Amino acid sequence: MTKKILVTGGTGYIGSHTVVELHNAGYDVIIVDDLSNSSADVLDSIEEISGKRPEFEQFNLADTAKTDDFFNRNQDVDAIIHFAASKAVGESVEKPLHYYRNNLVSLINILECQRKYKIANIVFSSSCTVYGQPDKLPVTEDTPRQDAESPYGNTKRVNEDILHDSVKAYPELQAIALRYFNPIGAHPTALIGELPLGVPQNLVPFITQTAAGIREKLSVFGDDYDTADGSAIRDYINVVDLAKAHVIAIKRLLESKNKAGYEVFNLGTGNGYSVLQIVKGFEKATGVKLNYQIVPRREGDIEKIWADTTYANEELGWKAEKELEETLLSAWNWEKRLRNIQ
């Protein structure tokens, strides 16, 4: 019988790509999303790509009664991938209580329903923000977590603790936390991709919107970091590669191959690229010149971080495969499709 996976936040950027890969792997999917940062139109695109339409329900998982009602009606769910969360770093500084309520209560509600309705498996969308500015690079899964720079980052850290403690207390639960580095790019069909509401918070959508003429110029925050060209360094991973890792994690849980009840994996490429390298890489991949300016550093930004992916490569049998220029070109193709640019 086909396994059924609940994907919370499944109409979002990473969620939608993961639903496609779950369909490609033969799973049935039901999405719960409140559409606060996405659009129901994504369901049409998922169906166009995969030939299969996911079930969909719209509500906020921080609503305890609605969450319980959902699980009561969907007791055939075999596993959960939990993406749904408020995710803008700057907004979280301005609205910490909103972020703590939304991001923490939603996970607690899910875990309580997992116990009540006997659903053992959950994959959690975590982040490399839990490492802060590490003392040593690259970061492994054993790199000490540091105090978060924002309430958003802190919700990832606290949610990891909630998962760890829950699995320890309730042996019927098992969980995998996937710590993402910087997801970029879009599906090769250009039918789904990153669609920020308002001014983009992430680098690549700001680049593509600048290239499309929607933004006047790109701001590069700082050229005086201790890096080769002075701009900050991150580990940028293709969103499709990232999505495929979730399918592998689900399979690992369903086949009871996770070895510790609660496991953590870094998902990156193992390579660090500077902001200016990304700018030049985009120009090379697309042939489009970018209007950019160097501005002062942004508060809260770390200098450099990239992953040691050895553990995920060896233990999950997963590896990021797509090259940077291919990934940047996919982001541009998505932007062009959105804006009807030839």
Layout of SSEs?
Layout: E1 4-8, H1 13-24, E2 28-32, H2 42-50, E3 55-57, H3 64-73, E4 79-82, H4 89-94, H5 96-117, E5 121-127, H6 151-169, E6 174-180, E7 182-184, H7 203-211, E8 218-221, E9 233-234, E10 236-238, H8 239-254, E11 262-267, E12 273-274, H9 275-286, E13 292-295, H10 310-316, H11 324-339
Parallel strand pairs: 1-2, 1-4, 2-3, 4-5, 5-6, 6-11, 7-10, 8-13
Antiparallel strand pairs: 9-12
Helix pairs in contact: 1-2, 1-8, 3-5, 5-6, 7-11, 9-11
Pathway: Carbohydrate metabolism; galactose metabolism
Pfam family, one: GDP_Man_Dehyd
EC number: 5.1.3.2
Helix/strand-derived category reads alpha/beta
Distance, first to last CA: 45 Å
Shape: globular
- How large is the share of residues in beta strands? 15-25%
Q: What Rg do the Cα atoms give?
A: 19 Å
CATH topology of the domain at 4-184 and 235-267, what is it called? Rossmann fold
Q: In the CATH hierarchy, what is the superfamily of the domain at 4-184 and 235-267?
A: NAD(P)-binding Rossmann-like Domain
**Roughly what is the average pLDDT, rounded to an integer?**
96
What is the highest CATH level, the class of the domain at 4-184 and 235-267? Alpha Beta
> What CATH architecture of the domain at 4-184 and 235-267 do you see?
3-Layer(aba) Sandwich
Please count the beta strands (DSSP E, at least 2 residues each).
13
- Total helices: the number is 11
Q: What's the arrangement of strands in the largest beta sheet?
A: 3-2-1-4-5-6-11
The profile of the biggest β sheet is: 7 strands, parallel
Write down the secondary-structure element order.
EHEHEHEHHEHEEHEEEHEEHEHH
Unreliably modeled segments? none
Percent helix, as a range, is: 40-55%
